[in-house]
Amino acid sequence: MKILLKQDALGTLMRQYNYDPYSLASRMNVAPSTIYRVMNGDRGVGGELIPKLLRAFDLSEKDFDKLFIFSEVLPNSNGKEVAK
Q1: What does the alpha-carbon distance between residue 40 and residue 25 come to, in Å, rounded to a whole number?
Q2: What is the enclosing helix (H) or strand (E) of 72?
Q3: pLDDT per position in the chain (84 positions), as tens?
Q4: Those residues with Cβ within 8 angstroms of residue 50's Cβ, 6 or more apart along the chain or in another chain
Q5: What is the pTM assigned to this prediction?
């Protein structure tokens, strides 16, 4: 099981909160390069980034599905992920 970021939801929230990658990184206390890698799909979200992203947008754990989806790699799927 893997957690994926909803890129479109992130973009929408960034516009609503008037964040650019630098201001979001500052709010989350991470390097701007981390935000760029997440936005480009070069880095996944993990246990440290998930709560920081939720807090940056004033979301609670109940709002998890607004920004994230669960995905699982199926056996014999050649590594292809299937979103749930």
Answers
A1: 15
A2: strand 68-73
A3: 788 899 999 999 999 999 999 999 999 999 999 999 999 888 888 889 999 999 999 999 899 999 998 887 655 555 555 555
A4: 3, 64, 68
A5: 0.78
